[in-house]
Amino acid sequence: MERNIEIVLYAFTVMYTPGPVNLLGLNAGLSTPLRRTLGFFAGVALAIFCWFAVIGFAGQLIVVERIIPVIALAGSLYILYLALKVYRAVPPNATESTNGASAQGAAGQLRFRDGFLMQLLNPKNSVLVIPITTVMFPTHGIAGLSLIAASTLIALGGGGAPLLYCLAGRTLGKRIARPEVLVRCNRIMALLLVVVAVLLLYDYVLSPLREAIT
Fold this sequence. Notes:
The chain is an all-alpha fold. The protein has helices spanning 5-16, 20-31, 38-58, 61-88, 99-105, 112-120, 125-139, 145-173, 179-213.
């Protein structure tokens, strides 16, 4: 176990720092019941597992590096879509009783598909997956079934990151539960997601393209 502590520390540091997925988890905790977002966390975990399983067994580092700009472009566009979704979401109000209001409140609900696609298309997965699968796993002799087991544990930890942010959001939400405050939080989160999308687009698409041209 002591030999694997570097894997645990590295994965924890990368997965639990603020990012688009964790920001969405925080936002969901402020405005959405926990049971309605469990699918989102499961989608995040499955996407991380897919990355580890595919890259871990294939080990094609050069191919992965070449497609990172494509993944970054798709991921940035999807993050912008989610930013718009969060911006337009209406927090649930206990006094709402009409079907129209209920449908409007559900517009910002995060589903399994959202978590899976957002994490699958997140170019920062390479920061997490490639060092572990190409350096740490081989160094510690992790392969075959051990690789699947390790990937599963890391994926569960990855799904737990936005869940932890969500629980933090729920704690804050008890103190700032007024609808107008939650709307402002939605818009701040949406703005942060836009910033994340722009940074990903610049770092993984525009910057490499400029270096290739020059």
